[in-house]
Amino acid sequence: MFKVPVICGTELQREIELSLDGSHYSLTTGILPSLGARSNRHVLLRNFIISPYNRIYRFWETFLVLFVIYTAWVSPFELGFLHKARPPLSIIDNVVNGFFAIDIALTFFVAYLDTNTYLLIDDRKLIAWKYARTWLAFDVISTIPSELAEKISPSPLRTYGLFNMLRLWRLRRVSSLFARLEKDRNFNYFWVRCAKLICVTLFAVHCSGCFYYLIAAHYHDSSKTWIGASIPDFKTQSIWIRYVTSMYWSITTLTTVGYGDLHAQNTGEMIYDIFYMLFNLGLTAYLIGNMTNLVVHGTSKTREFRDTIQAASSFANRNRLPVRLQEQMLAHLCLKFRTDSEGLQQQETLDTLPKAIRSSISHFLFYSLVDKVYLFRGVSNDLLFQLVSEMKAEYFPPKEDVILQNEAPTDFYILVTGAVDLLVLKNGVEQIVGEAKSGDLCGEIGVLCYRPQLFTARTKRLSQLLRLNRTTFFNIIQANVGDGTIIMNNLLEHLKEEKDPVMEGVLLETEHMLARGRMDLPLSLCFAALRGDDQLLNQLLKRGLDPNESDNNNRTALHIAASKGNENCVLLLLDFGADPNSRDSEGNVPLWEAMVSNHEQVVKLLADNGALISSGDTGHFACIAAERNNLGLLNEIFDRGGDVTCPKNNGSTALHVAVCEGNVDIVEFLLDQGCNADKADDHGWTPRNLAEQQGHEDIKLLFQSPKPARTKSADVKFLKLPEEKHGVRFIGRHNSEPTIRPLSHDRDEGHSLKHAKRRRANNFHNSLFGIMSSATGEENDLLLSVNQNRSESKFAQSPARITVSCPQKGDIAGKLVLLPQSFQQLLEISMKKYGFMPTRVLIKDGAEIDEIELVRDGDHIVFAGDLMVNDFLL
């Protein structure tokens, strides 16, 4: 299990300090953050299990390397120059062996990295089994004391120090140390390699000298040895003299400058010299090759970098560029050199991989960050995945311009790490107006609104940003049309929240462009209703959008318009065939949305067009009214035909809620309507039990003397659903793209975009056929242009409203409708509303109308037959 640590406190301060340097373009000391701002991941291991990457354990391993170096020197020395144990070396040997014995025990509690899965294994049995079948035997043997080994060894092998040569097995720790140091950025690779080559050379010289002396010391005629020829009594000399003489011979042989004073005297020494010189040939080639490679590799990159810097400086001087631009050029080149020299060509590496792998890597690194960006709240997972796959990660050094004010909006950026200042140019002086931090956007307003960039974005410190091209972004949006409206709505809400004159101007201009249909993103009826824009709604309906389209919660544009009390939008939707009795996922109907928001005109308008409160979840409505202690709303539900005694989905009724609220008036009203005080909910609670449990004495008295229920037939006229007449068909619900999630400002339950479930994409409209169909429709149904004549765009403005009535069908008060564009459409309204084709169309004062141009906003039109005309006039 992995955790992503959060950089905070001193770590963040250290990152900032490393990113900033004395020069704006000097980045030699900073540490580049990992791609995607994901730090090294920590692993949660079992109790008493140590991670091999633990800092303390690493220190312990480094500490043991000091003893390994001692072992590498003392083991050949004791073999060549000592015949028995001699303090203090024997004491030190046993102390060192004790430390390695502790390490053996500690290894049984150290997790290891599985080479197949690259996961840390922390199972004790697996750790012990792996150690037992690999290095355990060698480690145990190398820790046995020399004195004990000499006693238990066979007679021919009882040479002191011979058993100590097995301790050279510990040299693998030194090799691992150098391998780690070569990858450690805190150490210079060149000097680490040089130190490694020097250590290899000294170890070879030391071992060779000790072994060569061992041959001479055990030869039967000491005068016929390489050291006895120059020092006849060498065995009586001090160990220091003998050791120095041996090292002198070994080095002169290695460097091929001998033999003058010391040379082989017998056949055994000659054979040893032959193999040693052959070994020296390979060692010398290894040393020369490594040193040459280090020098060439280091100088080639540096030379190329210096040539590039010189060319950039010459270019800047020749063209007399400002100092700030020169610094930005040099900073960019220095950063590129850093990434190249450290092997961090990240984008180049990604570009060489197949698209599927690139997408998976981008999803892993950036998805969690992009998901939190305000612009993409509520969009589908498919859209986020496509966007992340097309984003490019880029590094910017401190004080470098990412976006320039008034430049063309070709890209926008998401800040991953670092910080960016937002600047504007006022009166020739740059002023900082804001700061972008991790997860913020830069340049999105220019891209989405297609206007010059509002600000200059300049990095404060070393920053990593994700770049997304505008063309690529809109191509993806066109394949996910439903998400486009969500993105635009998120942008508009963000502009509303910004208390800045510039942002307010952008908001007004953007809404104006939306009303004229000049934005590239697709729009929906729900979006227009949400914004209360009847002009845009009228244009979208003319383009053929389904008036009953719904969002994820099955809320139609009529639900939204009714909740906002927008009469014009409600009229438009009803006139184009919107279902006044459509239910959302919570059982709400447009009539209830208007009632709960206290929009009386909209309530009357919906009721006149066949809206019924009984089409929704009246039990839920009654519970809400009781919870709000709103007796008037509860009475209105009853008056409009709603059954206030119905339970909602959990079995509780409005009477349960009223008892909990302690509202005696509502309890009395509900009892009058026939509510049962002994009806239990899903949890077994009845209103009577609740009254007793909560101690409502007044309510308990009401329950003890119930009043006779009042029937609905005595007080209210039932409204019936309109029947299908004369071929008039009521349009049912149909989900279509594009859709948009509604805002929560006018709903008690308040589902904000930030916490709402993600929308489901419509497969047809996201397919090639849907896109082509949409494109064809846009060509044939273009929105009205701003430059059109006002006489040609009469209905692009707020449409006129008239009242129609038909006394012959019993309707004298009339119904409010939108003024149609032709006289024939006016007659069709009569057929649609009354199932009656009039022979004459009159205004209220009796004048006959035969042309639609004579009708004005607010007129009362009467549909009449020949037999009704005279009666009406009288």
Automatic annotation (TrEMBL):
PROSITE patterns associated with the record: ANK_REP_REGION, ANK_REPEAT, CNMP_BINDING_3, KHA
Stated family: Belongs to the potassium channel family. Plant (TC 1.A.1.4) subfamily.
InterPro entries associated with the record: Ankyrin_rpt (IPR002110), Ankyrin_rpt-contain_sf (IPR036770), cNMP-bd_dom (IPR000595), cNMP-bd_dom_sf (IPR018490), Ion_trans_dom (IPR005821), K_chnl_volt-dep_EAG/ELK/ERG (IPR003938), KAT/AKT (IPR045319), KHA_dom (IPR021789)
Organism domain of life: Eukaryota
Name of the protein in question: Potassium channel
Keywords recorded for this protein, A-Z: ANK repeat, Ion channel, Ion transport, Membrane, Potassium, Potassium channel, Potassium transport, Repeat, Transmembrane, Transmembrane helix, Transport, Voltage-gated channel
Domain observations: The KHA domain (rich in hydrophobic and acidic residues) present in the C-terminal part is likely to be important for tetramerization. The segment S4 is probably the voltage-sensor and is characterized by a series of positively charged amino acids. The pore-forming region H5 is enclosed by the transmembrane segments S5 and S6 in the Shaker-type (1P/6TM) and contains the GYGD signature motif which seems to be involved in potassium selectivity.
Keyword field contains Ubl conjugation: no
Membrane topology: Multi-pass membrane protein
Molecular function via GO: voltage-gated potassium channel activity
Positions of transmembrane segments: 56-75, 95-115, 190-215, 274-296
UniProt GO cellular component terms: monoatomic ion channel complex
Main location: membrane
Keyword match Iron-sulfur: no
Subunit and partners: The potassium channel is composed of a homo- or heterotetrameric complex of pore-forming subunits.
Native organism: Heracleum sosnowskyi
PANTHER family per record: POTASSIUM CHANNEL AKT1
Physiological role: Potassium channel.
SUPFAM superfamilies xrefs: Ankyrin repeat, cAMP-binding domain-like, Voltage-gated potassium channels
